[in-house]
Amino acid sequence: MNTRIVAVMLCAVALAGAAGSAGAKGCLKGAAVGGVAGHYAGHHAVVGAIGGCVVGRHLANKKAAEQAAAAHAAQPAAAK
Question: For residues 12-35, b (16+ Cβ closer than 10 Å) or e, as one string?
Fold first, then answer.
């Protein structure tokens, strides 16, 4: 295996593990995945990382909104 590929994969795993504590949820994890995918799809790692960050952030916001709606719906009627 090419050492560059191994280095990129290790960085992607490290970033994915650190993404849970990031302020911009979804961005780091999406950027890591998008960067790796972009690298293999024609050496466009930066474009892939940017796209992955945008998509990851969108999905994190969507998940947070769904969880907030579910928590609001689960409250007893008297507490509303």
Answer: beebbeebeeeeebbbbbbbbbbb
Residue 70 to residue 65: CA distance in whole angstroms = 9
DSSP state letter for 42: T
Residues of the chain with pLDDT under 50: 21-22
Closest of 37, 62, 64 to residue 50, by C-alpha: 37
To the question of pTM greater than 0.70 for the whole model, the response is no
Block residue for tokens 């050492």: 3
